Amino acid sequence: MYKIIEKLFTFLYPIFRKWGLGSSFASYLSLLLNIAILCLLAYAIYIVFRLVLVTVMMVIAQKTKTKFDDLLVTNKTAKYIAHLIPLLFIYKSVPIILERYEYWEGVFGKLVGIYIVILVLWIIRTIFNALRDYLKLKPRYSDKPIDSFIQVVMIVLWMVGITVIISKLFDIDQKELLTILGAVSAVIILIFRDTILGFVSSVQVSINDMVRIGDWITMDKFGADGDVIEINLATVKVRNFDNTTTTIPTYSLSSDSFQNWRGMLNSDGRRIKRHILIKASSIRFLEEAELNDLKKIHLISEYIDTRKLEIDNYNFINKVDKSLALNGRNLTNLGLFRKYITEYLFNYPGLNQDMLMLCRQLQSTSQGIPLEVYAFSHDKRFENYEYIMSDIFDHIIAAVPYFDLEIFELPSHGKIIADE
């Protein structure tokens, strides 16, 4: 190949000399014609190879089932490769054409060599972009931070490419250049601190499966509450539920605390955990007449009969003096209300009956007795979940007066003045 190029660009000068032209004039004339021939040949090679490579790749993409070659066509990989081939031809031809002009041979040789290095890196980038798009089509990789890994690889390749470019540009041995770069590594680490931290965090996030694209995360420190839409080397983008976008440094995912709701979304139910405050002064023992009235409530009528029989038997056997309600065993309006809420939850169609479900009393507070509902909604979608929870508490709040209980409320300003 080299001999063919040599013959192509060296035959003009001897011809011009035979024609009686001077050495200097023949040299310049052959140089100009050789440059024109080089440009025409390089352009012709580019046109031919672009047509061949693009056509072949498109035909292969149409005939194969895999999407990877289609993505190579989309990212114009063949077109960039077609640019590379005439550049290699020029790179081999420059030393021959400019043999008599050492200075310009060095200048153009370096420029073409640098362009080749940049073009090779660009071709590799298009291949990686096609690979990224291909992997994102796969369900198992769609939620992985592929962009981060590709960015890391490209950074390493660009560093290698810049090293080669500098060594060519200043005629420095690559080993010596690496030694110099090693001496200033502290500065480089300082400059690329976020990138290095982001890379380490990306690896941790991927290996530990901490965050995926599409996950709902909450991070109060950055005001993030929404779905992860992008994971890069340096940042993680979250689309909040108010349609704003929050950008979080990737390394913050491994250094700070955040909440990932994926487990809930993948589970069989979304937790409902909410309480109402019952005024302590409204809690009391129930009398016989009140129990007979409460037996009209379908969900607890059988329970009242069973419990009343148990309590009466206990008090009779132990000869309890029932002239005072405090003696022996008794039913309270709060206890019966808790039982009613429990039965209501078990009969509510929107709740998952296979998961934990209860109504419990929490530690007393200065505002009253917290009565908490703990259950799991079948439907995990936000709007439906909120509807189910509101529907349950609408009913519970409306049911409170039937048990002669009161919900604690802070007195209004007007009420305080009236009391004074």
TrEMBL record:
Spans traversing the lipid bilayer: 31-60, 107-128, 148-170, 177-200
PANTHER family, per database record: MINICONDUCTANCE MECHANOSENSITIVE CHANNEL YBDG (PTHR30414:SF0)
Protein name per UniProt: Miniconductance mechanosensitive channel
One of the GO BP terms on file: cellular response to osmotic stress
Keywords: Membrane, Transmembrane, Transmembrane helix
A GO cellular component annotation in the UniProt record: plasma membrane
Compartment(s) where it occurs, according to its Swiss-Prot or TrEMBL record: Membrane
GO molecular function: mechanosensitive monoatomic ion channel activity
Pfam families: MS_channel_2nd (PF00924)
Domain called Mechanosensitive ion channel MscS: residue spans: 194-262
